[in-house]
Structures
1.
Amino acid sequence: MKKLLQDIILERPLLGDGAMGTQLMLAGLEQGNCGEAWNLTHPERVLAIQRRYVDAGSDCLITNTFGGSRIMLTRHSEANHVVEVNRAGVDIARQAFGDKTGYVLGDIGPFGGLLKPFGEFTEDQVRSAFEEQAGALVDAGADAIIIETQTSLEELLIGIQAAQAAGAKCIIGSMAYDVTLDGSTFRTMMGIEPERAAEFMEEHGAHIVALNCGTGMEMERARDAVERYKKVTSLPVMVQPNAGRPQLINMKVVYDETPEQMVKGLLPLLESGASIIGSCCGSTPDHIRAFRKVMDEFLDAKGITRNGDQREN
Ligand SMILES: [Zn+2]
């Protein structure tokens, strides 16, 4: 039987995938259009992107459902398709693995607004949207739910509880940190420090603490975050840094870290004990391929095979 995600990463680190949003743009999605609807209208294009990540060596794929909650889909007049979009997202990722064993992480991104009293959304609205999305992802067979790019503990908690209500076997909470102006530290837009986030996630039953995206959170900062997480929690850690910073070149947003530059930060991340390493905005299958090579060398040096068995001496 396939091991639970939180169990297999105790044996060996796993490789995540790279960006979906920037890859959808390359495949023809226009800025501001609904990428998640492509799970229904252009499934072959989403599948092609995820197959490239599997071919590059990803052990985990994140579903194309970042904006797949009812609140987000309503903004694109897609509210009638919430369950279908999320279900198709899981099916496509599973299909991309083909006959390989891989882990499908059902993605829940931010609902894209603020909770009352700062914004117009009630906790109940967000809760019911996340419960509906988590339910669809779990029912479709996602191996885990990742609540990602989170900046507030209130929204994160609603996501964790929605995943629990849906019966998710593994729950990952992933925060987006920004490096402060003076460069001395990082916290989320809502002022949450990594130690607080990790303690909060552990207290509320998440299985894996993570970080993704953010501003200025490159590989080296991600390693700092792993170390800060590990000081306060024994839960495994997942990281998905961006491929550097966005630059506007010929009216197109391009991220400035090449696979060769980004992969330099991988070994320190592995040595700091990160259990799942992928990458976020701007990264490509080439970034993941470069990661795979270094991760395999790391596993070899430790005498761990890709299927997780300790090699006999
Ligand atoms: Zn990102």
2.
Amino acid sequence: MNLLPFGKLPAAKPRAFVPQTIDLGDWPQIAPLFDQLESRAANCKSAAELERWLLDWSELNAALDEESSRRYIAMTCHTDSADAEKAYLHFVENVEPQLKPRQFALEKIYTAHPQRAELLAIGTPASGTARTSNNEPCRRPAFRCYAVFYRDVKNHVELFRPDNVPLETDEARLCQQYQKLSGSLTVNFRGAEKTLVQMARYLEEPDRALRQEAWKLVAKRRLQEADNFDDIFDRQIKLRTQIAKNAGFGNYRDYAFRRLGRFDYSPDDCGKFHDAVEKEVMPVVRELQAQRRAQLKLEKLRPWDLSVDPLNRPPLEPFAQVGEMVSRTQKIFGRLDGELAAGFRQMDDLKLLDLDNRKGKAPGGYQSTLSESRLPFIFMNAVGLQRDVETILHEAGHAFHALATRDEDLLPYRSAPIEFCEVASMSMELLGNEFIEEFYPASEVAQASRLCVPNQKHTGGTPVPLKSSDANRARRVHLEGIVGVFPWIATVDAFQHWIYTHPNHTRDERRKAWLELMDRFGGDADWSGHETARANLWHRQLHIFLHPFYYIEYGIAQLGALQVWANSKRDKAKALGDYKKALALGGSRPLPELFAAAGCRFEFSARTIRPLAKMLREELEKL
Ligand SMILES: [Zn+2]
């Protein structure tokens, strides 16, 4: 039984190395291919032969990656199918652990290979007849340069320490403990047991007393576990500091920067980002908070007043059926760019969109790339909220990225670092929102009243497009979200810089460091009476526990996306052209070059942030 939403997909390229009939879930059939690659490496006597070897390895990895994705997609589309779950777990338990040491062995062979330097220096004409779906010449450069690939593989090989393997297992166990503890927390709210995730929606309730009650209950429940969260974190810091020492680093921060492949920015650059957010973004945050306070007619904003609609309006209703969401999104892309629109239509035609919320589907949303077919898939649980519209635009941005790199044969170059992947998706939110009237048409009443306004300026020629108030409300929520996330990113990032450069701190010192950051970036909300909750607020940020230092990427990417948007206001065609050109580079270039191709600066001090904060303020004033 086929549990996948899509059928047979068009092959991007016929296989040259992996047998057609292989079962990619059966390790005894896979292992001989790794044996072959290992023994063949010694016979690669020229750069061209080494490249063939790399591309065969790449083909095998793409096939394995797609096998894993297909099993994951089938499981998340059918959570009630025992077969789908079994197939996925079989891969995770029997194939993945076998793969790791075999991949590492090939990485070592490649970095030490006598032909490696020659292949790096000459580059080779990128293979395949490069044509886009519209049959335009491809924007991909004519030569593939192996510099980034070599840099990343070498980094991985160099950081490996056998001593760290058991420590990393212990670390993973602590991460699991954090997830278990967080996931287990519930409260009894008005007679019913609720998870903390379920409680979040009460913060959007117009009834202030109800919001306050819900907020306090959650804060209290978290505080009951404060010591447990701190215990887990203390042990994680100790382990991580040891892991860094074993790898020859003075502290875990410097190790984490290397492990995350941050070759193009330093802790110092992150410090500049924090300062610039404080100076340039915080004034906008405070203005928005003052407006909110006035609209809600409150003397002070309390922590439970920050998510509710300030005019007490019911939620926006962008669509009723998922089919409408798809057709309207299609129209938005049509107004934006013919090639992007064709890509989205192709996904719809091939059933690579599974977007409706239905029984037996896993929660949440994701974009996944089928690495061998070189096609993207989007999974969502749309229920008719404005958030769904933002999500489909975002995930479509990731999908366009995957489609743009379809002609690249080296698998790692078909995906970019996260700092740039999110530029692809966040730009699409901003660019798509320009045409969000597809979801919120200006009503005829509004149009009529507009025509009756005396002294209406008639500019002649094409009429000025009408902006509906619901569309502007959607835009406003989106832009306010962008303004608001910068301070939180700066807080979470600066906190971790402090933590891992002061590994012997006490819990009191840690709380003090956090509170200083809350003073810098917390805005004007009044927390009086809830000081302990404020001091422990970081317990709820899972990245601090599970993915250390992984967070500023979203801030960096948002700066890129805002620059793409600013460029599009000056020259839409050029901005879109640069955006597509940069996406087509995949991961073949270092971050500053990817940003430059998209028409953006890879720099995150006040120099970059000031004009973007100004633009955000001006755009918000228009809405
Ligand atoms: Zn994303």
